[in-house]
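The material for today's practical consists of a large collection of protein records. There is nothing in a record beyond a sequence line and a structure line. Backbone structure tokens are a discrete shorthand for how the chain folds in space. Nothing more is needed to start thinking about how sequence determines fold. As an example, a complete record with its sequence and its structure tokens follows.
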Amino acid sequence: MGREIIELRGVGKSFRSADGHARQVLDGIELTLREGEIVALLGASGSGKSTLLRIAAGLIGVDAGSVSYRGQPLHGPARSIGMVFQSFALFPWLTVQQNVELGLEARGMPPVERAAKAEAAIALIGLTGFEGALPRELSGGMRQRVGIARALVTEPDVLLMDEAFSALDVLTGERLREDILELWTSGKLPTKAMIVVSHSIEEAVLMADRVLILGRDPGRIRVQLAVQIPRPRDPDSADVRALVDEVYALMAAGRGRAARAADAAERSPLGRRLPKVDVARMEGLLEFLAEEPFGGHADLPELAEATELSDRELLSAADALNLLGLAQLEHGDLQITPLGQRYVEGTHTLRQEIFGQQLLAHVPLAAHIRHSLEQEPGGQLPEGPFLRLLEEHLDEAEAERVLETVIAWGRHGEVFEYDYNAGTIQLPTGEEDDTAPPPTHP
């Protein structure tokens, strides 16, 4: 690798929620990006990957530590750093040519020169002939190519890609990724280094020279893994599959019992994040795991291929099953537990009973809500107090998501019900009578 381009030293970042509580997103980040390398960032939702990328771009400042670009402190957006977003971020009323020229126009480049540079970037990314098209006339893959051309037209030293392929269908995303890698290996890109945020383990292994796995609450670099497989990399080769397996195991390791115990020790278990997954997906994965050819035990990469779930979807569902004691997640493998096998073989009523029992045993927030309802005459409470309790530990959006998840899980397990019109949580029908005070006699 060549000279250092971007350095993050001891970087920490916090954000304040609407109620004024500070939430630390990143802590103690140490990262050096050198010329000639691609670094991939992996991590669960909430691990601060996108925040880290924006700090590296100079788009947001830090609360602790330092950021430097080619040895100089970085205190704002760097002209030599380009960024590609997941959402394309194109101006719909501008043509392809005009969208690509925007950055050059902002720098005061003369019209003739910027037109020539934009045409060259458009040709490089494979969109010649579409210069006059509007974004609405393009496919998703073509719109993302425009976003990449717009980032490349300024000839940045560093290209930052924030899940740039995840909004595309699988085949389109793979083709675009392969084209970018071909341009990189051929030396046709003006860029000297890249950082890629991804939710796909295979994508990270195929693209990167180094894979960084972030933990969360707060986000820290948990693992750095060098990828020494020569390019071009065959996704079906033994070396690539072995490394994908290793990364799956490392990702899963942060989701096991030890990580949950550490999380609970650091803060109130009521504020613990929950995997973002619905019951139907959990049940489907558990049933799939119990069937042949797996017979109750599966390697996560093989399970991902068989179920056609994304890495994010699979890991979230596996994490939830592990949390509820229906499966065990260890060393990148998922194994059904005896209780999970009983769940799969059970009737709908038995499944609900097991799910509710495990929810109360392993999710403190669900147990707290249930206990609060049992203490309340009428067995009904507004959701507001529980949401505010979560916001003491999580940001507003994450608190809402966790409460939404625990309500959905609670309804399935018949632990409590929810009135969507009134925004109230209540004991299941019939149980609320048990909370009424005894009758008084004259």
